[in-house]
Amino acid sequence: MLNHILQAGTNPSINSNNMKASADASTTAAVIIQNYVGTILTQADLSLPDILPDLPEHQAKARDHATSWRDVIQPQMISTNTDIVSFSNNFDSYYDPLVKLAVKIQQNPSDTASINTFKLGVQQLQALVAQKQTATHNVVNSVGGFQTTLAEDARNFASDFTTAEAALAGKDGQIAALGKQIDAINSAMSKDLTMIAAGSTAAVVGGLMIAVGALAEIATAGVSTALIVGGLVVVGAGAGVAIAGGVDYAKQTSALSTAITTKTKLQQQYSATKNVNTIVQNLSGQASAAVQAAGSLLAGWQTLEQDFIVFQSALTSATPDLGYFLIAQLNAAKADWDDVGNHARKLLDYGSLPVSNASVTSSGILLPNPTATFARLAAA
User: Fold this and answer.
1) Torsions phi, psi for 13 (to 5 deg)
2) Cα–Cα distances in angstroms (integers) from residue 171 to residues 135, 195, 263, in the given order
3) PANTHER family of this UniProt entry (predicted)?
C-alpha cells in the first residue's frame, strides 16, 4: 500500500488521460473549420450557367452544411472544453468533503458509514463522467456527419473545377479565346483610327467644312451618321472614308466592351470556383482531424469512467493505510484536473458556453447543489 501511496503523487488512478492534448487538437481543428465555414458563407454567388449548371446547387448545399457547423456542431465542439472545465470544477467541489472522509477512514479503516459516503461521492463523480462521455459521443457523431457532408462538397466542387478548367483555362479555353478576340478587336480599332485620321485630313486639305462643337449629320446609305474626331465634327465629301472608319470603330468599341466584360466575369468566376474547391479539398483533412480529436476526448472520458470503477475497488480493502492512499490519490487527481481545467479555460477564448456545476447521485438523480449536498453527507 505504501508503494501505491508514493506512486499516486505522479500517477493518480483518476487522471485526465491526455485530455489536454486532445482538447488542443479538437480546438485547433474547430477553429480551422470555422474559418472554412466563414469563407463558404461569405463567398459571392458562383455562376457559370453555360458550363456548370449545377454549380449554384452545389454552393447552396455547401452553405447549408456550413450553417449546420456554425449553428450546431461548433457549439458542440466548444462544449467539449466546457465539459472539461465543468468536471474540473466538480472535482474541486468534491475534493474537501472526500478528503475529510478519507481522514476518518484512516482513523478507523472499518468506518463503514464513512466508506459508503466516500463511495457515494466517487459514484456521483463517475456519473458526471458518464454524462460527459455521452455528450462527447454526440459530438463525435455530429463531426462525423459533417465530415460526410464535407466529402460530398469536395466531390461536387472537384467535379465543377475540373469541368471549368477544361472549358475556360488553357490555350484552348474560353478565357484564352476571349483574349485572342480582344487582341483582334484592338487591331481592328487601330485600323479604324487610321482610316478616320486619313479621311479627316483629306477633308481638311480639300478645304471642306469642319464644324467645331457642332453635331453635323451626313446621310450615308439612308443612315444618318455623325463623325466626331478629337472633339471636331467632320463634314464634307472627303469624309466618307473617315465616316466608314468611325462607324466600324463604334461597333468594335461595343464588341471590345462586351468581350472584356465577359472575359473578366469568366476569370472571376473561374478563380472563385478554383478557390472554393481548393479550400474544400484542404478542409477535408481538418474534418478528419476533428473526428479523431473528438474521438480521443471520448476515449479519455471512457477510460476515466473505468478509472473510477477501479478506484472504488480500493474501498473494499480495509487496510491500515487506506485513508492515506485515498488522500494521496485525491491530491494527485486534483492537481491534474486543476491543470487540465485551467488549460481548457484558455481554450474557451475561441468560444464559450455556460459552464455547469451540476451533479447526479449514483441513482441518476440530479443534485441541485452538489457541493453543499455532498458536504453535508460527508460531515454527517
Assistant:
1) -65, -40
2) 54, 33, 14
3) NON-HEMOLYTIC ENTEROTOXIN LYTIC COMPONENT L1 (PTHR38443:SF2), PTHR38443
Chain-centre distance of CA 293, in angstroms? 15
Other CB atoms within 10 Å distance of the CB of residue 254: 11
**Three-state secondary structure call for residue 247:** helix
Residue 29, sorted as left (phi over 0), alpha (psi -120 to 50) or beta, turns out to be alpha
Spans of the chain below 50 pLDDT: 1-6, 8-9, 192, 195-245, 247, 352-368
Of 8, 120, 23, 128, nearest in space to 348 by CA: 23
For residue 220, the model assigns a pLDDT of 39
CA distances from 116 to 101, 102, 122, 150 (A): 10, 11, 10, 50
Nearest-angstrom CA–CA distance, 370 and 206: 108
Report the distance separating Cα 345 and Cα 267, nearest Å: 46
C-beta neighbour count of 278 within 10 angstroms: 12
Cell of 379: 460531515
Scan for cell 463623325, then name that residue.
Answer: 227
Whole-prediction pTM: 0.71
What b-and-e string marks burial along 204-232, b requiring 16 or more CB atoms within 10 Å of the CB? beeeeebeeeeebebeeeeeebebebeeb
Of 191, 169, 189, the residue nearest 263 (C-alpha)? 169
